[in-house]
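For reproducibility, we list the full input for the N-(aminocarbonyl)-beta-alanine complex.
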Amino acid sequence: MTARLIKNGTIVTAADTYAADVLIKGGIIAKIGKELDSEADEIIDASGMYVFPGGVDPHTHLEMPFGGTVTADDFVTGTQAAAFGGTTTIVDFCLTTKGKPLKSAIEDWHNKAGGKAVIDYGFHLMIGEINDEVLAELPSVVKEEGITSLKVFMAYKNVFQADDGTLFRTMLAAKELGAMVMVHAENGDVIEFLIHKALEEGNTAPIYHALTRPSIIEGEATGRAAKLAALAGARLYVVHVTCAEAVQQIAEARNQGVDVWGETCPQYLVLDQSYLEKPDFEGAKYVWSPPLREAAHQEVLWHALKSGQLQTLGSDHCSFNFDGQKDLGIGDFSKIPNGGPTIEDRFSLFFSEGVTKGRISLNEFVDIVSTRSAKLFGLFPRKGTIAVGSDADIVIFDPHAERTLSVDTHHMNVDYNPFEGMQVTGLPISVLSRGEFVIQDQQFVGSLGAGRYLKRTPYKRVDAAPPTGVSEADGKHKVKQ
Ligand code: URP
Ligand code: ZN
Ligand code: ZN
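The corresponding predicted structure, in tokenized form, follows.
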């Protein structure tokens, strides 16, 4: 294997920013320092560049059946686009089917990813029911398959939704195994009622997707999940947080010492509900669940990331073409497949809107886009940092390059870009996965199937009060990571 030296760059981790060179041997970071030239076969000049750990995207849906169709990106196109965008690790959601062994779903997902992914990947596992068979399988899912995060949907009635009993029992089982429970937090029963009412009243346009999923019921479901996690003593991660009400529930729970964590996504930071009103059914391009919110929620989310009330940024990449997929919902907004293409632009958009615009620091950027997810999902320090012994997953990033996000230049397998026309500053120039170039000078040079499956580590439970990672500060519990 080629020994590579990245020279003259500025290394940025969640903790530090400093000038040093990185020597890579056998796919691992072997040394960090100066004058290491003699040990390298190849020298990469990173003058004027940031040297970031590769992005860790904790939330993707590749080749996933949903809404009567299948997402447009698979593990080939999705991971290539991720790499172009500076992401070197993804954790994808493996869907299960009631009545079928969990193992068969995991096998399906391995078949989708194996031989295709160009960067490393892990899986979360959906839990749709709890019964003796599921309980019997869970220990091996966590310990042998290395799947240490279990996802429960509180919405999508009659599709993925599980009831509160299932959520609570999943939490109890997860706690025993050191697995984290993830929730899609919306009140699916209330949404179902509101959708029927809207359609009955003849309200079929995309905007009604947002109007039938108000932020108050995301807040309600988030608070409910946090309370159940407190009762179970489980670790909870709330995916795709969109609104002030949900942030408030997470912040309150964390202040009470509940082991709860929250993710938001780039679309909620820069787009708003008005996009659903675009003419000619174009609003369908902006249908996510939970939906885009009124613009005032954006600053709440930025502040929550800055202050640590939310910790991670997932893409929630779930791409559907406008032609032939999103248009399934013409005449009935509830049939628009939910989701959008975001895996490629997550990293640069967040850098540009966050660091360049002064909302977050460089180190906070790395923490949120990479390190926190690696830590929470049992991948740290192998992933999520630049340190001796870590995988050499590295992004060489030009912080001054300017470009326009567009369907014409993106690499996702989909016919629109939700951020079309947005100007961003900052661009991944080269991206390495375990020391091998995947992107070199903005060209794809990786190999299909080079990405490896990541078995992840369960978290260590601390039984004594106060709960995991909690310290006393100002008379209140604060959760640390
Ligand atoms: O609209 C979304 N978020 N689609 C992906 C599936 C999910 O709920 O995460
Ligand atoms: Zn969801
Ligand atoms: Zn999702």
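Confidence is low (pLDDT under 50) at residues 464-481. Residues 61, 184, 240, 288-289, 316, 318, 338-339 surround N-(aminocarbonyl)-beta-alanine (ligand 1) (CB under 6 Å). Both points were considered when choosing residues for closer inspection.
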